[in-house]
Specification:
Radius of gyration: 19 Å
Oligomer: single chain
CATH superfamily of the largest domain: Creatinase/methionine aminopeptidase superfamily
Shape: globular
Largest sheet: 5 strands, antiparallel
Number of strands: 15
Strand content: 25-35%
CATH topology of the largest domain: Creatine Amidinohydrolase
CATH architecture of the largest domain: Alpha-Beta Complex
Number of helices: 6
Distance between the termini: 29 Å
Bound molecules: manganese (II) ion
Structural class: alpha+beta
Length: 301
């Protein structure tokens, strides 16, 4: 293997190892009565202290929320008897680890959580050079359905490339027609989402966004918008949180940049039928005879 490839893969491995440590420590902090903001800041600061950078804001989505929820700067909300998805990312030099875990504080959704975990575990077992994303989607869907739950059809895993947390190929959570063949050293995130009998098996956007990313810098006149644009260039296109930004006329500056087409926003994604959602996610490097999980804290079964 070319030396450069190994150096790059080592950055993915280091980012993944840091992320796994932070994930395990963060899970211990998710308890009834604890503030969501405290956990989000713990995650993001810990990633920095360990020598990486957040690849995107710490996502803490609860109950029928599936993704893209992160606390606002003055968020006072605390965990209740929630089913909590903690989805976090770290990068080193743009090479990303992306991982999620579900913590069930309700105490009675163990089956749902297990369904998403089993789907992830079964998918990882079949990943190797030459596997089709069609096969992966099929294994995920079958595993979730066998356990009596529904896969979420419009949320998917994805490729990871430098400074891109959502690169092709799409890794579906259901069997579908047209796939892509995975090759050795592709880096991909697998993230099955499962919902219960009440769920539609589909998510929809709702509410205001707390997460944004820079699509393309466009000229703006407003002084605060100009300053904000310079500020967010440092994320190199990766998603950032509104609470990370300077507060001076922030809403106006964000709206101005959004209107020029410079920003993408990420509204919270909720289950359309208000079903509860569980998610499990790991980042893997595809290998000739299998795959290497970069974000595993310990060996998967
Ligand atoms: Mn993720
Ligand atoms: Mn992901």
């Amino acid at each position: 293997m070319e030396e450069e490839t190994e150096l790059i893969l080592d950055k993915y491995r280091s980012a993944g190892r840091i992320l796994a440590e932070v994930r395990e420590e963060a899970v211990e902090r998710i308890k009834e009565g604890v503030a969501l903001l405290e956990v989000a800041e713990f995650v993001e600061n810990s990633i920095r202290e360990k020598g990486a950078q957040p690849a995107f804001p710490c996502n803490i989505s609860r109950n029928e929320e599936a993704a893209h929820a992160t606390p606002s700067i003055d968020d006072k909300s605390v965990f209740g008897k929630d089913i909590v998805k903690l989805d976090i990312g770290a990068h080193i030099d743009g090479y990303i680890g992306d991982s999620a875990v579900t913590v069930d504080l309700s105490g009675n959704n163990e089956g749902l959580v297990k369904a998403s975990e089993a789907a992830l575990s079964e998918a990882i077992k079949i990943i190797r050079d030459g596997v089709s994303t069609v096969e992966i989607g099929e294994v995920i869907e079958n595993t979730i359905r066998e356990q009596g739950y529904k896969p979420v059809v419009n949320l998917t895993g994805h490729g990871l490339i430098r400074y891109n947390s959502h690169a092709p190929p799409t890794i579906p959570n259901v069997k579908y027609e047209h796939g892509v063949i995975l090759r050795e050293n592709n880096v991909i995130a697998i993230e099955p989402f499962a919902t219960d009998a009440q769920g539609a098996g589909k998510v929809v956007e709702s509410g205001n966004a707390e997460i944004y990313s820079l699509l393309k810098a466009k000229p703006v006149r407003l002084r605060e918008a100009k300053k904000l644009l310079e500020e967010i260039k440092k994320y190199q296109g990766l998603p950032f949180a509104k609470r990370w930004l300077p507060r001076e006329r922030l809403d106006l500056a964000l709206r101005t940049l959004k209107n020029t087409g410079a920003l993408r926003d990420y509204p919270v994604l909720r289950e359309e039928g208000k079903g509860l959602i569980a998610q499990a996610e790991h980042t893997v490097i595809v290998k000739e005879d299998g795959c290497e999980v970069t974000t595993a804290a310990f060996k998967l079964d």
